[in-house]
Amino acid sequence: MAERRQRQKQALREEILAAARDLFARQGYESVSMRKIAEKIEYSPTTIYLYFKDKEEIIEQVCQHTFVLLSQKLTEVLASETEPIARLKKGLRAYIEFGLHYPVHYRVALMLPVDKEHHHYQESEGRKSFEFLVCSVTACVEAGLFQETDVMAVSQVLWTAIHGVTSLLITQGEGFPWIERNRLIDMAIDNAVRGFLK
After folding, report:
1. Residues 41 and 76 in one domain
2. For 103-160, what is each residue's pLDDT tens digit?
3. Cβ 51 vs Cβ 103: under 8 Å
4. Whether 80 and 158 share a structural domain
5. For residue 174, what are the domain limits?
6. What is the CATH number of the domain that holds 139?
7. What is the pTM assigned to this prediction?
8. Cα(147)–Cα(144) distance, rounded to whole angstroms?
9. Partners of 146 in the beta sheet?
């Protein structure tokens, strides 16, 4: 009985997070209230407060979950690749594909304005996800493959490039005459990386 109650509590908690994620993505963080989240899952606001103290905790948990999923994906994809440039490109593509596979997750975690007061990057799952890129860039720099040796600068420039591709494909997916998607992604990654090669 205790185990079943725990499973039910966990299921409701996940339902709350899923509802909040969808509302945040469609309406924006500021427009969503605890009452709206409660209405979406047909519970009272009081029930939501039994699981989360406020809206800030909900969005933090939504984002943390997204970055855990992203880290799992990157771990799987990068495990079999050791050549530095190939590994870097493989990770960049995995990031884009993750965003396209989980567009609602991506919108909420990476396309909504950041609340600096409640956002703690250093302790976040987002930082762990970004470290995959930093490690791949570090390997390229240490192998003498890049002309620019500032690892953090290179990592941030590459991230802005692939985030741009990902966010545009999510928001303008059917509204713009894109070239074939895989070709677009490959060209974006190849050109972003080529700019740093010796």
Report:
1. no
2. 999 999 999 886 666 667 777 899 999 999 999 999 999 999 999 999 999 999 999 9
3. no
4. yes
5. 55-194
6. 1.10.357.10
7. 0.91
8. 8
9. 197
